[in-house]
């Protein structure tokens, strides 16, 4: 591809969707709704649940229900299969980070997670002043709550 064509491409602005796979969708929905206080999902069915996080959507999929291609009604397209092929597949340990403003917010979340019995897996203090706390969700994914100062852009 030529440089000219590449320079005309629209800039990618942000992550639109983050998909995590759940062994037991109701347990994961409760964790994100209640423990992380995201509120009720805007979309919920036996296959998936969706939470709005600003410009990003967090999707939780029931493991084993997304591995086959899925045709959209009225010939509107095809969603390719994704995720592990069954509920007994090994943990994926997908990493994701949720943003808060300051280090004190990270500390408050660490206290909340610990009080709720959530495994705190680690902590980090970053050179630019940011802080992070890492935790395990019910499906073994590695979550992070991070403050400003972990990246040049945040």
From TrEMBL:
In terms of PROSITE patterns, this protein maps to: VOC
The domain of life for this entry's organism is Eukaryota
Q: Which UniProt keywords apply?
A: Dioxygenase, Oxidoreductase
| The keyword Metal-binding is annotated on this UniProt entry | no
Query: For the VOC domain, which residue ranges apply?
Result: 11-148
**Keyword field contains Oxidoreductase:** yes
Task: Give the molecular function GO annotations.
Answer: dioxygenase activity
Q: Please state what the protein is called.
A: Glyoxalase/Bleomycin resistance protein/Dihydroxybiphenyl dioxygenase
Organism from which the protein derives? Rhodotorula diobovata
């Amino acid at each position: 591809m030529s440089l000219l064509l590449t320079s005309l491409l629209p800039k990618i602005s942000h992550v639109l969707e983050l998909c995590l796979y759940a062994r037991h969708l109701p347990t994961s929905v409760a964790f994100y709704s209640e423990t992380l206080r995201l509120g009720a999902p805007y979309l919920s069915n036996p296959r998936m649940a969706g939470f709005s996080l600003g410009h990003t959507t967090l999707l939780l999929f029931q493991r084993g229900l997304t591995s086959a291609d899925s045709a959209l009604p009225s010939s509107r397209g095809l969603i390719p299969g994704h995720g592990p092929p069954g509920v007994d597949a090994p943990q994926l340990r997908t990493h994701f980070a949720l943003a808060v403003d300051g280090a004190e917010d990270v500390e408050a979340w660490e206290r909340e997670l610990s009080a709720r019995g959530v495994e705190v897996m680690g902590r980090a203090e970053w050179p630019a002043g940011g802080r992070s706390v890492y935790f395990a969700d019910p499906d073994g994914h590695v979550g992070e709550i991070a403050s400003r100062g972990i990246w040049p852009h945040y």
